[in-house]
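Hey all, sorry for the wall of text incoming. These are the two entities for the joint prediction.
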Amino acid sequence: MPLSDFQPVIGLEVHAQLLTHSKIFCGCSTAFGAEPNHHTCPVCLGLPGVLPVLNQRVVEFAVRTGLALECTVKGTSVWSRKNYFYPDLPKGYQITQYDQPICEWGRLVIDTPAGEKVVRVRRIHMEEDAGKSVHDATASAGQSLVDLNRAGVPLLEIVSEPDLRDSDEAVEYLKSLRDVLMYLGVNDGNLEEGSFRCDANVSVMPKGSTVYGQRCELKNLNSFRFLKQAIEYEVARQVDVLESGGKVLQETRLWDVNKGVTRSMRSKEEAHDYRYFPEPDLPPLHVADALIEETRGALPELPRAKRQRFMSQYGLPAYDAKLLTAERPLADFFEACAPHAPDAKKLSNWFLGELSRLLKEEGTTVSSVRFTPTQLGELLGAVEQGTVSINAAKDVLGEMFRTGAAPANIIASKGLAQVSDVGAVEAVVDEVLAKSASEVEKYRAGKKNLYGFFVGQVMKAMKGKGNPTLVNELLKKKLGD
Amino acid sequence: MSQPLTDLTMLELAAALAAGKVSSVEATRASLARIAQVDPKVRAFLRVDEEGALRAAEASDARRRASGPASPLEGVPLGLKDIFLTEGLETTCGSRILQGFVPPYDATVVRLLREAGLPLLGKLNMDEFAMGSSNESSAYFPTHNPWDLSRTPGGSSGGSAAAVAAREVFGALGTDTGGSIRQPAAHTNTVGLKPTYGRVSRFGVIAFASSLDQVGPMTRTVADAAALLQVIARHDPRDSTSAPLETPDYLADLEGGVHGLKLGVPREYFTDGMDPEVEASVRAALKEYERLGATLVDVSLPHTSHALATYYLLAPAEASSNLARYDGVRYGLRARDVRGLQELYGQTRGQGFGAEVKRRIMLGTYALSAGYYDAYYLRAQKVRTLIREDFTRAFQQVDAILSPTSPVPAFRLGEKVDDPLSMYLTDILTLPCNLAGLPGLSVPCGFTKAGLPVGLQVLGRPFDEAGVLRIGRAFEREHDFFRRTPPCP
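and here's what came out:
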């Protein structure tokens, strides 16, 4: 059977670092980028005698995420210890949730070429992150170093059902999930720094079958592109194995970025026996109904709903709505500007064009923009009224972006206003035509390409400020066209 | 004063300090002198902190003069089992693997003692990681029973019990996971209280079995135990299993007696293997309680026979995980000349842990392993619930439960070292209390013909330490057992 006769089956396990100020079981900072082992204390170093105390904020973030993903939030959940030895795991066990997680059975709707698709979320649980082992040049030969700044940073693990059917769906799910978490303010969505990480469980089965094949777990997928490439490679690999009469083995495979292949990291036999058992240092976690209801009431509008509203409320195309709602601050700013702008689509054009360009150029975000929604509205109004040309308006926006000065002042101080006064323009047109009698004669005799010359002369005389529409209108009238 | 200073109880010393008859420095020097005199034979101390203790005693005397005592026990010198983290003072938990480990912080109970103005004399010997009933699993040396130097003081808080009995300290703190306070107290004619699970903070106490460990006072009298409990019983936000309860006044009703109380005598606790002299002593104590106006009630705790197996699945399971952090990476022993990570782990833990600790890590690892979890760990948890329910039912009928603390008196050093099971069996009467999380007290109740102490155990309802202490005190008041000093050295 060729590749096309097989159906890939994919589920994703996502680890998202929570944007709390302190770690999950101690008061140390979660800030990224400090000196190694700077953000540590006896608790997250795993010294003898220490005990964990749960950061309440972590629970609130988990509940918020669970509700956004339409999960059942459990009144009681249980902490467990996952036991394994590794130098970056200070206690020799990770405190996590195992058989009784805080959230179960949710869903996330994604867009596919075939329309909307519901991806089921099996569970969400809270756990502590491990530290980092460093094997690079900063260590001397034969040494490895351990940085425990990350040890104890709170994580949510979000596990989907194997509902995804190809690499594009997997990428779409991961992007949508990332958007949701960022909207909720619980995660920064940074794949490169590893604060948003993804493992993929991939198997294949003959099309039409209902029995899943043996799955492999793929790791080291720290970009959307790698996720897509790794799944596609892995699907093809598994089909090859089956086609050549072999069996897919249950194993963990690592995506090799340089070679573009997945390779075996450990087999089922080498898999750890984590010896999970309930964490005796933490009582079962009880989440009050009041917290659940309060959180539900405070949930923000989620990306998908916002996108649909942008289409219906502002009459925007799907493309514009998707880009404008990709990040909450941009969408919020758009909504703040909309009442002041003459036209939502034109506002969208400015957002996705000039404003996006400026943000990218300055490497900044919309939150640091210096001008107000009213000022942007004024600028767009000026364009609409012909007070300023589109090109000049771009300069004005740049100046507003950098200084926060009012558009009217910028237009005035830079002399960017267009001359739209009919009498004033007409006087210049008359003067130009009078000075260029021979060209007018040739034009009238049929040398129509001289038209540009006249426009140029008028504009030159007006130092570029003549309203182009008006200039054209008058020239054509006077030339007898 | 005709009697030596070190013979005073904690409260007697506190009264003398308050009356200005003696200073904390004098009391501390007396203890240090006594330690120098007897400890070469008793070997209760792993580390004497002469400098730290005297500094604290001086500060205590100065405070008393300047602003008055910080607590009723201000100035009374104390010893600490080496399981409590002490900032700046080496803490080994009786293990090779923590040799040289100097903690950067104080356990909550240590902080509370310091704040209450009690000078700390040093760290007391114990079974390695509190795993043992004789102090023989200490990686350093065994402690000897002051009542018979050829015998063990019991364990795992054997160093604490021996030091209290030998008058090296006025009192001590121990920990009790399956009887580690009460059994050595019984073997040394001292008082030991294991409070209700959650009554005293475990923060900074090196974990053996987290769901069973509890900190408690080891003293010469019941009143001293009450006074010391008063200092350490406190809700601690750093221990999520610490009960958010107010601390009652443990001394207020201490002399209230037992008149009208119903005291349960569990038939399962008077077993075949019991030493006849121990049984006789305890039966005599029971009669005494009747005479004092209590009613004895025959009760049944039907799941008692499963307690040992339950304990030896759950405690090692938790221990196997709790001891995983001793890996040679961050602190403590690190094996030399190793190649690679696996060898680092293997050699460090192989050299750092003793036989009993290894045995329990293996037991616990096995009990938690895939395929065995349901049959061992999970089933043990279910039996633990049944054992707890036994007590709940019994306490519907009675106010407290009385039994021997240990079925046998102190055994000889070396006698049970090669027979772990018979060693485990000596804890059979103390284990159920930990599994149920109840308060348990051992109070001296007599001596065998050979002069070995016998302990009476009083078990109470959850958080009824006051009741347990009052019952213990009612008996203590009728006797002078606690006044007896050990014959040697």
